[in-house]
Amino acid sequence: MGLSVNGYLKKMRGTTRSPPRVGLLEIVWSWVGAFSGISAVAVLNYHLLDKSDLTLMIGSFGASAVLIYGAIKSPLAQPRNLVGGHILSGVVGVASYQLLHSQLWLAAAVAVATAIASMHATKTLHPPGDATALIAVIGGEKIHNLGFLYPIVPAGLGAIIMLLVALVVNNIPKTRRYPEFWI
What is the DSSP string of 59-88? Predict the structure, then answer.
């Protein structure tokens, strides 16, 4: 029939231990990468696009920075996942908003669930991409006015800028190598 409460709780105990703490150099390089990547996007946003209707800065890039500068070996941090996840999820989010904007709760749920399914189906799973889909729904007028430009600018272009920084910074130290794979 199903799991008993005790059996269900047993499943939640976990099967392994927490990974060891990373060394100080890994922390420093993660910081340098995140600072450089977000700085590149922010400078372009606030100096070039600030007076336009475009934006380059979205909250999901903060979470992408964790992956592409702090967890560089993760399959979720690889270029295909980073760029593809943001662009695909941006398309899903905009479509969800445009079809269901009269019911924002439904548009948000459809955007998030469909973005996950779409990223799984295309092997582009990148958790911050899901936030990109949600931002397309709950974002303000500036985001909504972008329409289907949103998956390109800011989602795609911002991800590409952060990727370029990751390719440089993550390959400076001899102990780091990025990416693990491209396709």
Answer: THHHHHHHHHHHSTTSGGGSHHHHHHHHHH
